[in-house]
Amino acid sequence: MSRLFFIFLAATSLLVTQPTYGKPNIVLFLADDLGWTGLSCFGSDFYETPHLDKLAEKGMKFTDAYSGCTVCSPSRAAIMTGLTPAKLHLTTFIPGQNRPFAKLNNPNWTLGLEDKYITVAEALKYGGYRTWQIGKWHLDFPGESVGPTGHGFDFSQDRPAGSQGHFLSDEAAGDLGLDSNYATDYFGKLAAKKIADESADPFFLYFAFHVPHTPVTGRKDLSAYFGGKISDGLLHHNANYAAMVKSMDDAVGKVVEALDASGQADNTLIIFTSDNGGLTQRYGKHDNFTENLPLRRGKGSAYEGGTRVPTIVYWPEVVKPGTICDEPIIGHDFYPTLLEITGIKGNEEHNEIMEGVSITSLLKDSEATLERDLFWHFPHYHAGGDSPYSSIRSKDWRLVDFFEDGSIELYNLKNDIGESHNLAANNPEIAEELHQRLKRWREDVGAQMMTKNPNFDPERQTEVVKGKRKKK
Residue 1 falls within a domain, yes or no? Predict the structure, then answer.
């Protein structure tokens, strides 16, 4: 069945009801590898993020917000579909990597976002929204270029041809009339121009940054500025990384300025979050790019540093300024939230399998609660993290199930946010109950499990081969 015909069929069951809150513009900012303490309003004593700090002052901070996975592509797919990576079978970054001599083999996972799922962009588009995507996508199958416009976006723009890392070519920057060839600056100006030029109908802007992902290279003037700020005792002290974060914040500022100038700020919902925790080391090289303390570890790991992320929601007249919510939320909650806010019912068949829940009640009342558990499933190795695992968070408790040796770790996050005291042996009943819930969830969503590797070689188990498997 062609994608076009599939969308036509889907559109026939995309229903719209009278929106409870009108139809606000929606801006969803997604940082790339920004850890929990990666903003000054979330605890950094070195990074400067005045525009995001101001959004937090005027909106709501979520202290216990999570990405759907400890690495990027699965988290992005979860945001787009409202489904967990485990259910999507898209459980690591595209194209992934393989360790042919490790103890366990990867499952036959899906290397891209399948077109059978109705994305949030498609739902909003058929509900009357213009849909724009700017920046990183990272959801296409290897060798394919369907891109965001194949998944519901009217407009999409990533880095122009000839770009290297975070920099546009001098030729491209000149052709575009830019005074900087830093890609993040370009994206900010592009987003601001879209807002200024096209304001007739409500819009959904998905602005997905490439920063502060590697390569850790900032704009020279900003890197020099932060280099002069380094001193002993700081939580963060990488000048190039700080420059990347500052450029990201400046781009957010350009978007907010454009909303203000066009008179749309009071009718715009802004969400800022990240695709996973900060990368503390690269492939075992101990680069020390950033730090997620007091959280343990970072991107690719089984611990809080891999998935807990800074999240801000700004929504005038609904979100009380300066509020803080400590109820756990996760990336795939945004899709059902946007459906409720806009009054768009979406696709009924897709909604039936959606796993995220609306957090609108939290936006109206930061003391509200959501009675549910959160789950993660990562049946892969990652060179910047730990061994493969699944995990569950239930209120203050978090349990991790490691696949290689079958070990269980249990932490009380209220008393031990750094996950330094494994309480599984002291609380066997709690550990068993959470472990059973985790296993039932894996069965319910059809989570793919790893298998024993007959070629296991202890001397070569860390050797990495990048994924080259074709679309299944």
Answer: no
In this prediction, residues 358-365 reach a mean pLDDT of 98
> Is residue 3 assigned to a domain?
no
Q: With the C-alpha atoms ordered 262, 157, 163, 238, is the resulting torsion angle positive or negative?
A: positive
In single-letter form, the type of residue at position 223 comes to: S
Q: Are 268 and 319 in contact (CB under 8 A)?
A: no
Tens of pLDDT, residue by residue over 458-470, are 999 988 876 555 5
Q: How far apart are CA 256 and CA 251, in angstroms?
A: 9
Q: In angstroms, how far is the first alpha carbon of the chain from the final one?
A: 16
pLDDT in tens, 178-212: 889 999 999 999 999 999 998 778 999 999 999 99
The CA distance from 107 to 51, in Å, is 42
The yes-or-no verdict on residue 331 having pLDDT over 70 is yes
- Among residues 297, 317, 293, 315, the alpha carbon closest in space to that of 307 is found at 297
Tokens for 89?
Answer: 């079978």
77, 127, 296, 352, 440 from 5: Cα distances, Å: 22, 18, 47, 21, 36
The structure tokens 């069965």 sit at 443
Residue 9 lies in a domain: no
Phi and psi, residue 266, nearest 5°: -75, -10
Q: Which domain holds residue 407?
A: 16-466
pTM of structure = 0.95
Interaxial angle between packed helices 334-342 and 72-81, expressed in degrees from 0 to 180 and rounded to the nearest 10: 20
Number of domains in the chain: 1
- Inter-residue contact 80 to 120 (CB < 8 Å): yes
Q: Residues 340-362: what's their mean pLDDT?
A: 97
Output the domain CATH number for residue 128: 3.40.720.10
Take residue 407 and report the two structure tokens written for it: 């070990």
Residue 14's pLDDT band (cuts 50, 70, 90): low
Within 10 Å of residue 322's Cβ, how many Cβ atoms? Answer: 11
Is the confidence at residue 1, as pLDDT, over 50? no
Q: What sections of 269-369 are H helices per DSSP?
A: 304-307, 334-342, 348-353, 360-364
In a domain, 2, yes or no: no
